[in-house]
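Case study.
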Amino acid sequence: MEWIQQLINGISIGSIYALIALGYTMVYGIIKLINFAHGDVFMVGAFIGFYAIAKWEMNFFAALLLAMMLCAVFGVIIERVAYKRLRNSTRIAALITAIGVSLLIEYTVVFFRGAQLESYPKTIENKTITILGAQIGTHSILILSVSIGLMILLQFIVQKTKIGKAMRAVSHDADAARLMGINVDNTISATFAIGSSLAGAAGVIFGLYYTKIDPFMGVIPGLKAFIAAVLGGIGIIPGAMVGGMLLGVVETVVSALGFSLWRDAAAFIILILILVFKPEGIFGKNAREKV
Amino acid sequence: MTETNKFKKVGSLVLASSLVMGALAGCGAKNEGDTATGGDSGKSSGGDTIKIGANLELSGPVASYGSSIGQGAELAVKEINDAGGIDGKKIELVKLDNKSENAESVAQAMKLATQEKVVAMLSPATSGNTIATVQIANEQKIPTIGAAATAPNVTINEDGSLNDYAFRTCFIDPFQGTVAANFAVDELDSKNVAIFADNASDYAKGLAASFKETIAEKGGKVVAEEAYVAKDTDFKTTLTRIKAAKPDFIFIPGYYEEVGLIVKQARELGIDVPLMGADGWDSPKLVELAGADALNKTYITNHYSAEDPDKKIQDFVTAFKKEYSDKSPDAFNALGYDSVYFLKDAIERAGSTDGEAIKKALEETKDLTLVTGTFSVDENHNPVKTATVLEFVDGKQKFNSKVNP
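After joint prediction, the assembly is written out as follows.
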């Protein structure tokens, strides 16, 4: 029974990684930028949700929607202010800028509210259901269903809508897409908006599930999500989902075997192994580098 | 207490040491002048008062700790003076503000020693600030008493040598592990215990080690020993492992930030055995993070409880409330109060206000009954005393029992 319990623990944490990883992978897919500020958008989303629930007394789903909307706007602002003008410069310049943006967001939040932690209000009662001897909280089921729902919605947007088609086109070849009359700037902004809103949603459900939020909460989940994205094949949307879940389960297995202090190390070992042996990730095709 | 110390220690040590140099250099000239006017008995205060210094955090981030100790100490001084003082001499408490800074603590200790010429000092509330002043106490031969400095290295240096003039009224951190083990075996009848400790903090590791040792002595068994690292948020995996080992008691030394989540997640996983921690749990945030329900059947050790029915404690609570407009005294108040009586007892037995004589008398303290327990001083200058166990009942700390060492 212990193993069923552990599997559920792993999938719960994995679905949060997956939600954050989606944003990484979408942005990378379209402009080949690893947006290190993404983990901080996640943190901002958690705080928006916190204030919405605790101060403005909204219910959980309203707070979730608000956090997603504000994070979408926030993501677009980051892109327009910091990344857009670097689109034609070296990739390392954009990468370093992303790290700068990440620190800027963290310390701006610290400046305005201090670095102390905040505990999420309990908006939804967490009941425990016992299935096959494993204890499953209703919160776990909630985060899992919200994550899966959002992933399905994302797949729909990317595959079935006009903006999704534009994203795929820009991702494939930005110049050709521009020649075909696609507004590349707007498409990139839309990508940031969708990715950031998913991070915002992840922030709110993280807050609900783990209770504790603070201005640096985005750093480690951000890095883990990055690993998840690489694991699944960076730039590939289903890859991010599978990578996230897989990473959650691997971490859980490592802890379950009694190496809990090695859990974070295990995640980074996976990153190194993937980059050495299969850099294109699980779902990646060995594509030629476009020159 | 220890947490602040942890943050400030490294950065401030450098600053502190440079300030000591400055202070020493600055005072050199002045001291020579003093000796000419009879500074040979530098430490004994003349006239009919006994001067005791209090080097406390009266402003800055941990001002509440220092101010509380100050309040307790002032009440004790008032009571002693009203009752005729020590051998007919009144006590004069010289309170200085160290601004919750290491460097300032050093400067104020220097001032107390050389300008105010106190016979003994109450040292700052946090261990870090106290450690900064210990060297001056040793050099100037002025006994210094830490009311709430719980880190082991206040009285004992890293190399195992004793700081001759450093004493304390509170028990040391690892002692709480011993208390928890005694409580688990004697009061809760637990035999198979688990330990889940913060691997990133010396405080938690010290507690875990002493807990384990005492459990072994008592014939208990540690069925699971797991660790986490501060700033973790997901403990369910490890807790599931602990649950599988079927412990009937889990000891969780650590700080409230993680402990709040651990308690919450443990209860979510259906772990309903008693959980216990130490003073690192003591924060209103703990109740917010874990939730009042999850905290039922959890215990912490502390120095004292105002709800303790003991007469000595209730007398103190009544006196304190009368003096400070109905404020219920906290542990710092009680420790500050006790520190002055600890000193009074030693000065009386020494029959002198000479630093060395007081130090010797402090070392010989035996079975002294104070508000925070009856204590004797051991060879490491640490009091061997009772600890109080508090239980969380619907999010409120309630007095549970007293546990002897």
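Observations recorded in class. Chain A is about 70% helix and 5% strand. The interface with chain B takes residues 2, 5-6, 9-10, 12-13, 117, 119, 122, 126, 128, 130, 135, 137, 210-212, 217, 220, 251-252, 255-256, 258, 260-261, 263-264 of chain A (CB under 8 Å). We will return to this complex in the next lecture.
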